[in-house]
Amino acid sequence: MAHETHEQVDALTGVTTTGHSWDDIQELNNPLPRWWLWTFYLTIVWSVLYAIAYPSIPLVSSYTRGLLGWHSREAVEVDLAALKDQRSGMTAKLASSSLEEIKQNPELFAFARAQGKASFGDNCAPCHGAGGAGAKGYPNLNDDDWLWGGSLAQIEQTIRYGVRSTSDQGHSGTMPAFGRDGMLKREDISNVADYVRSLSGLPTDKGADLKAGAQVFADNCAACHGDKGQGMQELGAPNLTDKIWLFGADKATIMEGLQNGRGGVMPTWHGRLDDTTIKALTLYVHSLGGDQRP
Amino acid sequence: MADAPLPQSLGAADPASADEAPLYVPRKQIYPQAVKGRFRTIKWVVLAITLGIYYFLPFIRWDRGPNAPDQAILVDLPHRRFYFFFIEIWPQEVYYITGLLVLAALTLFLMNAVAGRVWCGYLCPQTVWTDLFYAVERWIEGDRRERMRKDKEKLSLKTVGQKGLKHFIWLMIAWWTGGAWVLYFADAPTLVYELATFQAPLIAYIWIGILTFTTYTLAGFMREQVCTYMCPWPRIQAALTDEYALNVTYRYDRGEPRGSVKKNDALRRQGLPAGDCIDCDQCVAVCPTGVDIRKGLQLDCIQCGLCIDACNSVMEKIDRPLNLIAYDTDMNVKARMEGKPEVRRIVRARTLFYAGIIAVVGSIMITSLALRQNIYLSVMHDRNPLFVRLSDGSIRNGFTVRVANKHLDERRYAIGVEGLPNAKVDVVGGEIDQQGRSIIVVGPDQTQEMRVLVTQTASAAPASTEIQFVLTDLSNGDQVATSDHFKAP
User: Fold this and answer.
1) ipTM score over 0.85, yes or no
2) Binding residue numbers of A
3) Could you tell me if B321 and B84 are in contact, meaning their C-beta atoms sit under 8 angstroms apart?
4) CA-CA distance, A205 to A262, in Å (whole number)?
5) Report field, pTM of the whole predicted structure over 0.80
6) CATH classification (class only), A186-260
7) Using CA atoms in the order B198, B204, B209, B211, what is the torsion angle rounded to 10 degrees?
8) Which residues of chain A neighbour B385 with C-beta distances below 8 Å?
9) What's the pLDDT band for A180 if we cut at 50, 70, 90?
10) Across the interface, which of A6, A22, A243 has its CB nearest the CB of B20?
11) B407 to chain A, closest Cα gap in Å
12) CATH assignment, B375-487
């Protein structure tokens, strides 16, 4: 009986049926073309060959390596090498040009800035912030106030050897702990803090003895900060007359500095970053705000 | 279905019955016969025009002056540019391509609503190339009967030679299909020279190889199988069509009952019903997909109209009215049988809707193309820090500015800021002209990203001020502006 139903042709569609029938619903037999089936079998064969040739089957602590020995990490290394190769022309130009020459060449300058930005994110952002905005004790690199100078050469020097770093070529010079080491009395510290605030036009405490403060300043501070408090880049002594304050402009913060001293550290990058990267970083940092105070 | 078998449970089904059902359909070799007539002529003309455009378009020159290629149509992938005669498209303007695709899809829909599978029958590359390959086959191996006879006979030296020549010509056509394809992606004459002297880049040979393979396989071997099994368009069209759409239709109101010329003549003389169809099977013989149009509208039929030509040539010979097979609708065939008037309605909601959208999308594209500017300014405010206090107390904001110069020569632009009193604008690494303006120089057909610092000397700025960056083309005074904000403590 089943054989007979198989032979049956559906009247509406003119298609033979498979002989399967459920509740009078019959299944039409619309077979696939032969080439389609061959293509399908070919994909199965392909998957087997692929599994043999490439890493595929996970094992307990490793996986089958495949006969071709292909490895995704090696593929990345090849891509990276290709990228380095592609950039080698510009990188070589960057290495052989001076900072000034690079800045005069718009194409090279843009390349250096891009590389510097990436390197800044990797190395500098933890302290100076992603955009170089700085934080309390970490200078803002976008402004025009440079403790150790904002020219290209000075920035490069600071990046390369650091500040109060392990390198003997780094910048040195600290703010002494006048209070803690007994050089100044509490009253002197209060007076000179008020005087320092007055240098940049900030309001002072009522009854502050600015004259005494000025005397204390002349005796203890002017050697580094200058007789007018204008600062001295050779020693990294900040300009006390401008609107930029590394640690803060309030009297308590200034007194804290006078009491305990200040001496933030910028590490040396010489030997940790190659010369080209340091160049790129210099140009990037310089482009953020750059150059000397007006 | 009255004598349908009683329902069987799964367990009771005879497993042998499933085994006997064929797993696959063996391919039925199709030998389309040569035909002459109006639709065959239309198809030759369309074939010549479409293939002519495809093969020769890359060689058309279009002078754009220096700094740009002089090829009328060029997809310049390395430089991310697309040239189409006087239009140049940048990657950020890819919505023009989207618009074109929308127009193309709607045009297909409209064609379908008016006259069915016009695309399939006349314009589709699969149809055009298969038609060309059939023409070569017919030219070398002979017409339908000859080819059928040769395939049945044992292979002779002559047959092998003919088949060899056929495959050689097919491969040559396929090779040129791939060859023309790559010419759209590089300067055509240069690339032809490089290909001929084996100096072209490897990727060009790879693409020629891929397209040679696909053309040779799809037009030489797969043919109607592509339309029946691989292409989604027949299925989509089935959902798009309606009863008013014209289709290649066998007018069974006139054709049935079928019979020989003599028999039907006799019937007619006796005043008995007699059809015009004499069962000569010419419509089946010429069909490139091997269907019998007399079975009605079907998925395999690409509606190329060749059966109309074949039938008309027979109708002429037996002196019966033409167009037994014609562009018609099933609805009208039924109407005629019932003695009702025919309904032909090209203008209807569906066609108006498609035409309307085509008009709207087309107008939007033309308007935006006509109004688009050749300079483009994008400004992005620094996120960190939002503002910087300088040593003299003034406030500075940093911006990343990108200027796109779509002109084909180098341009100098002055950038300024409006909406902020006493604002000073510095371009890092940029120059300042004699009038004190900050200048950005952008090369021909390029973009330039610059860092721009805006400083306000008065420190009493509100926390946020809306400002306008204004870019002025110094050569012709064209201006573009983009708004952003100036942030302060």
Assistant:
1) no
2) 124, 127-128, 175, 221, 224-225, 266
3) no
4) 23
5) no
6) mainly alpha
7) -140
8) 129, 131-133, 140, 142
9) very high
10) A6
11) 20
12) 2.60.40.10
